[in-house]
Design brief:
alpha+beta, 3-stranded antiparallel beta sheet, globular
Length: 104
């Protein structure tokens, strides 16, 4: 991503980057305070839009991206809605999963 695709938000804390989705709609997402982390986020989103999906990207989506960012990507149809359920399952403690299993 070139330099013009990044800028700080109004509070000056988070970097924001812009991109075009598959429908050629211009989108903006808040990244992180660190430019390298925001660049990684932008690269991963571009990879996802290009059809690249692997375990590393799935883990990135479910564990590193915020709920707000993940919801926006689902709404824009960049990632499938199934990632939200997967992320919820990852946040649930193992003991809760075991209790649910025992009840069945």
């Amino acid at each position: 991503m070139d330099r013009q695709n990044y800028w700080q938000n109004k509070k000056g804390r988070l970097l924001v980057f812009r991109f075009q989705d598959k429908q050629r709609i211009r989108r903006r997402l808040q990244g992180f305070t660190d430019k390298d982390a925001t660049a990684t986020m932008a690269k991963n989103i571009k990879d996802i839009m290009a059809g690249v999906m692997n375990d590393g990207l799935q883990k990135y989506i479910t564990s590193i991206l915020s709920d707000k960012t993940r919801e926006a990507l689902i709404q824009w149809q960049i990632i499938p809605a199934s990632f939200e359920r997967y992320a919820t399952d990852l946040r649930t403690p193992l003991s809760q999963h075991l209790e649910d299993f025992k009840r069945r």
